[in-house]
Every structure is written in C-alpha cells, then in structure tokens.
Amino acid sequence: MKTVVHKFGGTSLATPERLLALVEIIKSRLESERVLVVVSAMAGVTNAFENLIGASAGQSDQARRLLCDITSAFKSSATELLSQEQSQNFSDILAKDQVDLEAILGSISLVGKCSEQNHDYLIGMGEVWTAQLVNALFKKSGIESKWLDAREILIVENRNNENTVDFKKSQQNLNSSIQEAETQATVITGFVAKTADGAITTLGRNGSDYSASLFGNFLDAHSVHIWTDVDGVMSGDPRIVPEVEVISELTYQEATELAYFGAKVVHLKTMLPALEKDIPIWIKNSFHPEKRGTKICSEKSDQSHSRVKGFTTIGQLCLLNVEGRGMIGVPGIAARLFGAMNDNGISVVLISQASSEFSICFAIPMSEKDKARDCAEKEFHREISLKMIEKIEIEEDCTILAAVGDQMVGTVGVSAKLFSALGKAGVNIRAIAQGSSERNISVVIKEEDSVRALRAVHSAFYLSNQTLSIGIIGTGVVGSALINQLQSEAPLLKKAHVDLRVRGLTNSRKMLLAEKELPLENWSQQLQDSAGPAELAKFVDSIQVDHIPHAVLIDCTTSETVASQYQSWLERGIHIITPNKKAPTFPIKEYRALKAEGKKMSSHLLYETTVGAGLPIIGTLKELIQTGDEVLQIEGVLSGTLAYLFYHFDGERPFSEIVKEAREQGFTEPDPRDDLSGMDIVRKVVILAREIGMELETDQIKVDSLVPPELENVSVDEFMAGLPKFDDQYTQKIKEAKARNEVLRYVGIINPSGESRVELRSYDSSHPFSRIKATDNIVAFQTRRYNQQPLIIQGPGAGPEVTAGGVFADILRLSRYLGSSL
Ligand code: ADP
Ligand code: ASP
Ligand code: MG
Predict the structure, then answer these.
(1) H-type alpha helices, 477-581
(2) How many A from CA of 226 to the centre of ligand 3?
(3) What is the pLDDT of residues 573-589, one digit of tens each?
(4) What is the pTM for the complete model shown?
(5) Helix segments in 361-518, DSSP class H
(6) Which residue is closest in CA terms to ligand 2's atom 5?
C-alpha cells in the first residue's frame, strides 16, 4: 500500500465542522493509502500564542487569561466532537500542559523577557494539542490511528542563524516511530522540531507545509497533499485579484519562485525535499475535496497561455541604491556590498545592477533599512570620503511584483507585455530584475500601486478578461442610445475577451451604481425607481476601483461643468470618451494641459464624435498626420442642421419657413440661433485645426453668422416672428447662386497657412458638396498626397444612433490601445 502524506492547514482545522470534514477526507483514502496526517494549529492559535508572549513579559495576569482562552477553545471542540471519556482525557492533558506553560509565563514575567527557547516552546503548543485532538477524533470515527510528536522526531541544527534539518537522524526517528505500531493512520504535528541539543524549536511561521514534505521525503511517500481553503495555487493572490484561475500544474521551481515572491498558499521550502525524491505535491481545497487542485511536480506542463503561470507581490520592502562613478570597472564592489549585508543578517530580496556598473540597487525588508544603510556606509567609508561613491539612497515603501513561469524562457514579448500593462495602468517601475533562470521577471514598484499593478498585469496576460469599468454621464438621447447598443453588443465582445462593464449611470439628478455590473435591460426604470441622488465625485470614485484595471467615463452631456473635471480624471488615470465639444475647445492653454496630463498618465481622452458624429473624421486626420502627410486645407459641411436647411432652401420657399419647419421636426436646437450663429461649426473647426497642430482659439475664427444682428438679443419667439423680414436677403443669395448653376452650403474652412473661417459659400452643381443628402456631413481633406483630388468623408453626421455608434467605436479603440486584440 502506498504511503501518502496529508497536511491540513489552520482553516481546515478551525471548527468542529471542519474537523469532521477532515475525517471524511481521510476515510475516503484509507482503502488505498497508508496516511500520515500532518496538522498545523487550528486557525488563529499560533497568532494567539504570539499575542500571549507579547503580553507575558509585562502583565502575567493577562497572559494567563489569554492562555485560558486558547485552552477553552480546544476544550469546547473536544466536548463537541469526542466521547465523554476521550474529552476528559484531552482536558487532563490540557490541564497538565497548562500548569507547565503557566510556570514558563511566570518565569518570563520575572525576567521581563521571553527567551527564544521559551518562545518556540509556547508557539508550537497549538500543533501539539491539535494533533492529539485529531488523533482522538480518528479513533472515535473508527480509524485506527496514533499520534506522533515531531518535537521528538524532527531534528534541526542551527547554523548561521538558520535551522537546517538533519535528514538522516530525522528519517531514522520517523521510520522507527511509525514501524513501532502499524496503524492505518498516523497523526503528526507540523511546524515543531527539536535541536540537536534537545531544545524545542520550530521551522518558522507557516512551516508545517515544509514539515509535510520533509516527512514525505523520509517515508519515500507516493505524494504529499496540502489541504487548504482555496482550490489550488492561483494565478494571483485571490484576495487581491478577483478573477484568478487555478493553475493546474506547476514545476517545483515555479512553485518555489511563486512562494518566494509572496504566494502564501505554500511555504517556500516545501518544494525542496519533494523535489529530491520527485514526489508530487498536490494543493487541494478541504472545503471542496472533489476539485482537482494544483499538482506540483518535475514535468513541465503545456497548458495553454502557460508562459506566465502566475503573479505575486511581496511588500514592505525598500530599495537601497548605491551610486558612484568611482564604482565603474572596480572589481569586487558588489561582493563587498552584499557580503556586508550578509554579515549583518540582512536578507537581500532582489538585486538589479545597471549594466553601466554606475549604480547597484537592491531590495531589502523595510525593517532593515537603517541597519542596511549603516552597514553600507561603514563598508564604503573610504570610497564615500573619496567621492568614488556619491550616493547611498533609500526609497521606502516598495513592493516587488513577480511574474513566474518556466516557459517565459525564449518567449518573445513577455516582458514587453508586462511593462506595457504596467505603463498603461500608470504604474511607475523603480527597478527591474530578471532572474538568471528567466523563470521570473520581477519589478519593484511603489507599495501604493501594488494592487492596481497586480490586477493590471493579471488581466493583460488574459488570465482574466480585458475589462473596462464604465461610467456613463448623461442619459439623454445619445446616452440612452449608447446604453442600448452596449446592452446588445457586450455579450459578443466578452467572447473576444473584451469585457465592457457598465458599472454606473448618472444624469444631473440621479445615479445608479453596481459593484459588479449594472443589468441594462430596464435601466431607465431602475434609474427612476432605485437610484440615489446624483453626486459626481462619488460616482467617479465608484467607477475607478482597484479590481478592474481600467476605468472609463463617458460624458454624454454638453456640460461645461462636467468637462472642467476631465483634467482631474485624467490625472487619476481614468480614460474619457465624449461627444461633448467643450473640452477640446477650451482655451489653448487648458487644452494643452489636458493633452499633457493624458500623456503623462497614459490616460486617453477620445472625442471622435465631436466632429461628424460617427464619421471617422478625427481618426482619419490623425492617421494622415501620423503617416507624414501635410494638410493644405480642410473644408466641410460640419453641421447636420445647416446641411438640412440648405438642402431644402432652393429659393422657392422663404428661408424663415424652412427654419420653422426644421425646428418643428426637432432638427434644430430649441433656439435655432444656436445653429444659425455658426458657433457649433466654429467649435468643430477649432477641434480639427488643433488636431493638425494649429493653436487656434474659437474667437480667432472669422464667422459669417446667419442671424441678422437686429435679432441677436431678442427672445426665441420674437426671433422666429422677426425672421421673415430678412427672407429677401437669403432669397437674393440663392437666386444669384442658381444663376451661376451653383448651390449654397454653410461650411467651415481650416487653412493652416491663412485664415480659418465659417461662411456661406456657393458650389458648382458638379461639386461633391452639392450632392449631399439632407443631414449629411461632408469633409474634404486637401493634403500633399491628396492634392488633385481631395480625400472625402461623407455620411450622416448627426442623430443619436450614429453618435452613440461613434462613441462605441471609441470604446473599442480604447480597448485596443489597452491591449485587446480586437
Ligand atoms: P493554511 O492555513 O491552509 O496553511 P494559508 O492561509 O497559509 O492556509 O494559505 C492559503 C491562503 O493563501 C489562501 O486562502 C489565499 O488567500 C492565500 N494566497 C495568496 N496567494 C495565493 C495564490 N497565488 N494562490 C492561492 N492562494 C493564495
Ligand atoms: N501554525 C503555524 C503558523 O501559523 C504553522 C503553520 O500553520 O504552517 O505559522
Ligand atoms: Mg499555510
């Protein structure tokens, strides 16, 4: 029969219910296995002992009370689970141990200090009691079992402040103890051990995983199972990254690397003894034993997207940077530096040396920072006084983020992807190290960025979807159309790994927020019934959350107040998409500041729909410029309303009548002067002009307003009533044009080397501008390349559906910028 080691962690032992689940797991194994059950202490017990030790030097009464709390917890589990006799026996054991422990506490309070030996003796007691409790429970459940105290078995030697296991002696001890009484199951304490000279010690916090693999090694076990409270080793810390996946297979080296960089699920040293005898380690969930778990073994798996297996972070570090020109070419500097750290017991977590040898930079625990600085300064005292070393700097509050995977070796682009994901999330990289094994790439970042960074890199590697947290501001016609389009398209996009999550809607009165995602089916009803009062700052805070790498605000208002917030949003790394023309026509200084902020924070401000609604006008212009073309002139019918008016105005009917008709059909603004003044077109002219680098302000555009000066300052009704008086002027113009076989069009003209203006012009009937339909927009780009024949973009340039479609296209553009492969 094969021997299998099963180790149960604190959460798998925490309550009577969990202990019964453990019994079931072991029972199901006994037919085919001889089991060694390694137990850690019930959850929280080791920490409770740490607290008790903390109190023991000063207030021995309090320490005693804390000890009683711990023993009572054990007693109550025993009463619930064991037979009366067993429970009594267990209580006797506790009472006897309690006497010993109280004596120790008394001596600690007497000397005012807890020695290392006493410390280790105390914190190991949780394991000792848990093992006996589990053993008794096994017996009660009909499992033939005995318990072993690892303090009599596992022998360690203390060398250079580190416990090294004496494999030979420990193996002999274990084998002889097990052989003594042949039982189906043996329960043994994890974590605790004994030194060669007989003192009680431990393998260090979380060390019972290590105990389990040591025992597996000694017994030549078939496998080691580590039972915990998660489904296996995950691609990221499940407490930080909400959408992690279970890694089905890892090599020993990968698992070691993940553990080294902070994946708490398995203790760092666990892999070594197993690797030596090629014993597979399984990480399994005691809450869901039916799940497969993670297998850690020597074979490389070829899982899909397995280049990077997982990401971890390790915090509370600082970076020490030693810099100086005098270091260049001088041999042995690094050796002396790290030698000095080692001599002072400072563990160096990561080293990154610039190839220039001009500086050496390494990460150490925050708690060691003063000691490290002192010992570096002492070591290089001479070099510092000779100015060969100019600076020893410490950067506090750093975190290492590590990407781990065997198959990163030779896979092109892994680091590029990692760095660009960090860049896009606005995370600054302080130092980089690539382990010589290339099994790991580590970057040092600021502690405050660590959650965002971990989530961003995790999603960049498709371990979770390319997810955008979207907030829509403004639920008018464009906003509504957009929501409806998102509702119908989002499920399809999810299949392409683009996860567009509308997590908030707001208008000027009310707002709706959802933690995960808003159901959009009946959003307008929800907004009416269950929404809270609108509060923009709160809205924005809820859209930008750490567990979703990218936040996007979509401003579907025409509000200046909303636009005035863009700067601060971009500063926070939030992306903005909008058909609102206010921001891109801000005074040039503010406009430039917006652009600069976006660049600095890698946050995008997209406003394709401010000109020509869904037509790809700004995008095309950008591409022309980026590919080295030069714009000579842009000319266009840029307003759907004015296109409509001059499409219908042919001199047969008076102009005022056509305005009235258009107004009644909702084709104009409520006050038609907003259209007729040409200001809307002026803004579009400015937006396009700025795209080609012209520094224009709206008041620098010459406008031929269609509003008669006499009617500028009257009410809307008076305006409508007064307009017919001016019909003759317009009729005159159309008649003259017609006589030349031309039509009238109200256009914007951008001229990089001259005057940009908005005016009524006439075009020959063969000109493309003459042949547009009702509310079409048309833009002609005359460039160095498109010189004889301008490049023309034409199509419906107004209306909620096409505008919303354009906004949607901007969302997809953004997701491409952020790394999706749409
Ligand atoms: P046990 O008490 O069973 O030893 P631990 O608390 O020591 O359990 O370790 C399991 C915990 O490790 C999980 O609950 C999880 O929160 C945390 N953890 C951190 N990183 C990872 C990771 N990459 N994969 C799985 N769990 C992780
Ligand atoms: N109980 C010990 C601790 O909490 C050992 C372990 O759980 O692995 O550190
Ligand atoms: Mg653990």
Answers:
(1) 477-495, 523-529, 536-543, 560-563, 566-571
(2) 9
(3) 999 999 999 999 999 99
(4) 0.69
(5) 369-379, 381-385, 414-424, 450-460, 477-495
(6) 206
